[in-house]
Amino acid sequence: MNRTLKTVRIAISIIFFLTITAALTAAPLAIPGVAPWMERIQFLPAVFTFSLSIFIGWLIITLVFGRIYCSTVCPMGTLQDIITHISLKARHKDFRYTTPANSLRYITVLIVLITLMAGTLAIPSVLDPYTAYARICKDLLSPIYSIFASDTHHTADAMTWWNNIALRALTGWIGTSIAIITLCTVAAFASRRGRLVCNTVCPVGTTLGLISRFAILQIEIDTDKCTNCRKCEYACKSQCINMADHVVDSSRCVNCFNCLSVCRDNAIHYTSRRKQLSLPMMQQIKPIRRMPETSLDSANPSPCKKTKKNS
Q1: Is the pLDDT of residue 200 over 60?
Q2: CB 215 within 8 A of CB 269
Q3: N or C: less crowded end of the chain, CB within 10 Å?
Q4: Using a CB cutoff of 8 Å and minimum separation of 24, what contacts does 282-289 make?
Q5: Could you read off the pLDDT of 256-268 as tens digits, one per residue?
Q6: Residues 204-232: what's their mean pLDDT?
């Protein structure tokens, strides 16, 4: 069951990633009906367009399942997972638990809210993961696609292509620069810290993280079965599994299910049940009430007092 959850999650994320990437890169690659729907259900763009049903729908889904949006639907999240996977294979380095940067997370969301209420989309469009990924596709991947789509063997077509590239470089250099900086920044952090970007400066991740704290289904560690091998902690790209307390920070967990697939003791589960310790020695007990000393003395008089009284 644990491996099935991970397999299904990967399959869904790849389908969304490839479909959205193709649609954003070139219009002929877009699947009619499917690609527009995948773009329409993105979280923050739904807020931009006042799509209340999509916004509330994702809040309800997160309240039930946790942050599955970040691990399946968000293309920027899948891009980070791909970079992280390649980096781990190359460096052979595991993850470790880190404390959450809550101050930075909440300040970022506050800035986005203030700018949205002020009617400015400049900062939200830079921090929104879907808009940032769309910029990467349109400003970086689209010109590369045009190289293979155009017939550069003919002089006229080649000149037209080069003129289009030159015009794009002159008129859209700001967007292209932002796309390059975004891609390099995300790749640098994803290669070493996994989903750090999602759990620090991403307003979508922080917003859904506030809801996922109370999600019905969460990752739980069975302390009676856990042998402290720490494989789940080493596999957690969100770095949110605290093995010192056997607690998973559900506000940062993106439900990738990597921890479930590596546990050989069947000690970690995606469940609605909250584990209670079964060992009495590890449970809190009530303090023992001590009897007053006066009552003890009257009930059990010392032999010395008895002797003195008899004499």
Answers
A1: yes
A2: no
A3: C
A4: 282/223
A5: 999 999 999 999 9
A6: 94
Burial group, residue 90, by CB count within 10 angstroms (0-12, 13-18, 19+): exposed
pLDDT of residue 300: 53
pLDDT score for 293 = 56
- Number of Cβ within a 10 Å radius of residue 173: 11
Q: How far apart are the first and last CA of the chain?
A: 83
Q: What is the pLDDT of residues 101-150, one digit of tens each?
A: 999 999 999 999 999 888 888 888 899 999 999 999 988 888 888 777 76
Question: What are residue 271's DSSP bridge partners?
Answer: 218
pLDDT (mean) for 158-176: 59
Q: Which two tokens stand for residue 127?
A: 């921090």
Q: Is residue 42 within 8 Å of 130, Cβ to Cβ?
A: yes
**Four-CA torsion 31, 37, 40, 43, nearest 10 degrees:** -110
- Give CA–CA dist 172/274, Å, rounded: 52
Count of positions (residues) in the chain: 311
User: Could you tell me which of 27, 133, 120 has the C-alpha nearest to residue 70?
Assistant: 133
Residue 150 per-residue DSSP state? S
Bridge pairing between strands 247-248 and 241-242: antiparallel
pLDDT at 60 over 80: yes
Using CA atoms of 208, 210, 212, 214 in order, give the dihedral in degrees to the nearest 10. -150
Q: CA 210, 213, 216, 222: dihedral to nearest 10 degrees? A: 160
pTM over 0.85: no
DSSP 73: I
- Beta-bridged to residue 219, according to DSSP, are 270
E-strand ranges in 114-271 read 218-221, 241-242, 247-248, 268-271
CB atoms within 10 A of CB 249: 21
